[in-house]
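Lab notebook: predicted structure, single chain.

Context: the supervisor wants predicted structures on file for every construct in the current expression panel, including those that have not yet been purified. This is the next one on the list. No modifications to the sequence; it matches the entry in the shared construct table.
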Amino acid sequence: YRKMSIVIAERCEDGVRFAFDSQRTDDSMKTRGLIPGAAMNVVHMDNGITIGAVGNLAVKQVLTHHPEWFAGLDDGPLTKQYVVTEILPKLYPILKEKKQLNEDMTELGASLAMGKFLLAKGRDLLYLDSDFSVMTVRKYAVIGKGFFWGLCPAFYAEDCTRISWKERALRGLRAIQAHANTVSSPYIFTDTMNRKFEFVTEGEAVCL
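Prediction complete. Output recorded below exactly as produced.
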């Protein structure tokens, strides 16, 4: 997980809220990308699907190029069964062809090379792990480098029920940044309701 950023997600009454950092890390340097688009850890597709990704972004890129894979959902929910039976059988051969699978895991089954992903639609939230397992998220999820440092400040602290989502998420992101060198501000907020991006630095916020 050496180069992973962080994505925090929480289901709410009307949808799913996301918070994530803006750092990009390669072999020699780190950069911060503030333009919504392909470089973002969370992207909203025109078909109503939202994808969050850390580490290897190949899955996000493939899914955003194949919105027709989700056509069978119509107005229905995004379910674990649909992803397992309809999405993964299409996704796997493309990733194999692009050499995005971890060859060291062949005896245990295919594994994505350093990638973890969240799929959301409305209030539905699923977690796709690097071993292709799919889990339904009931309340919240944190994926990426040092995720455990953010769980307590964002979701387990004594005052979590008394402060806003943004305050809790910022507290979690700052705690992770203090322990992980691949995570840094500005932080970015979005959700499945208005699908806009808000960039938060210390003392200011910019909406796009």
